[in-house]
Amino acid sequence: MAAAAHAVSLKRALPPVYAAAALRLATPLLALPVMASRLGAEGFGRLGLALVWAGLLAIVVEGGFLGAATRRAVVATAAQRLLLAQQVFSARCVLCVAVAAGVWAATAAGWAPAGNAVLLAGLGCALGGPATWYLQATSQLHRWARVELAVQAALLTATLTVARSIEVYLLLQLLAAATLAVLGWRRLRHDLAVPPGALWAARQVLPGLRLGASMLPVSLAGAAYSLALPALAAARMAPGELGVYYLADRVVRALLYGSDPLVQLIYPRIVSRFRDGARAALRYAARWALGGLVAGALLLAALLLATPLAGRALAGVDALRLHGVLKVLGVLLPLLMGWKFIGFWMLGSGRYDPAYRASIVAGGLCGAVGAWQLGHDAVALAGVALGAEAAVICTALAGMARAAAHQRTA
Question: Which residues are CB-neighbours of 360 under 8 A, at least 6 positions away?
Fold first, then answer.
């Protein structure tokens, strides 16, 4: 009966969620090539570096709550969810202040791109601020998809129409992200009947920071082999080469993000399957992992076939170089679209948190060291990104095997 209910729920939830995901996928796939043509290779490289910094700042503001708060909220009462909301909101307010101070210090020291410090700080806070943890835990993503559709459509239209500089592009991204963050928290306030101003609770700042502390280092380490790679390599890589890598990376990541709505819908169901035992949850996750592997392989084949044709429309971008980078980086599609479900099974179990954290840290170290040592051109950096993800998976599997062996002997 429960499985049937989940199946019906998925049938209702997937169409609107994937309509929003399709538009979210189309935005970078359409907008970034246009911006590359408008800005040229060097200007697009600078835009890419700014977006990388914004993404890194967003991870700090997000605070690890997407992993830490979601699994608690799935099984929480309304009162417990209200307490979680106060902890997440209050902690994020403090993290936003820390991010703003960090951007100012990094800009003054010459570590961050100068000239866009206010936009970078604002965009980082907006991207990291949404109440996705609550919407995911309460299975509202399919209803929330209508809001995303409207905002993403407006963003794409405005970008293609008026974004002809780095500053305008960043400002449009900031407005869209801030709109989603504000509306998401408004939905939470309505559901939990929270009075205005009651989300902020100074006494909940430390409990909130402690809640996210278990997953924030994981998120930061994970950024080292995704968002931080071009930031680290920028010191040694020419802006044009950085622009080629960033364009390839954003295309692959956009396709990967296309699976996120499905993963977000499946994650609470994986958690609920643990009521029937870890093996039942693993069997459920493994079926989805196999489907993700197949889907990723098909996407990779389509991407490699389409790139030579699309490359002709990219003025100022070396199409052959782009295709070479995608041949390496595109392997992430089947690899990660399959692995995500197993990773979320680990996270949902609560028993493999040490292995989960160790895997992300291992990937982060491999990515950071590899980018610094080998990130002299786009193809080499793509190999570093692929190697870092492989290190994550191998470390996670080893950690799970070690934990299972320890449980058998205990």
Answer: 217, 218, 219, 221, 222, 392
Give tens-digit pLDDT for 93-127.
999 999 988 888 877 766 666 567 888 899 999 99
Give the Cα separation of 86 and 92 in Å (integer).
10
- With cut-offs at 50, 70 and 90, classify the pLDDT of residue 306: confident
CA distance 73 to 57: 25
The phi, psi pair for 73, rounded to 5°, reads: -70, -25
Which are the contacts of 258, defined by CB distance < 8 A and separation ≥ 6?
A: 21, 22, 24, 25
Q: What residues have CB less than 8 Å from 305, skipping those under 6 apart? A: none
Residue of 179, 232, 205 lying closest to 56 (CA atoms): 232
Q: What is the pLDDT of residue 9?
A: 59
pTM of model > 0.70: no
Report yes or no: 47 and 317 within 8 Å, Cβ to Cβ: no
Q: Using 50, 70 and 90 to split pLDDT, how confident is the model at 297?
A: very high
Residue 181 neighbours by CB distance under 10 Å = 20
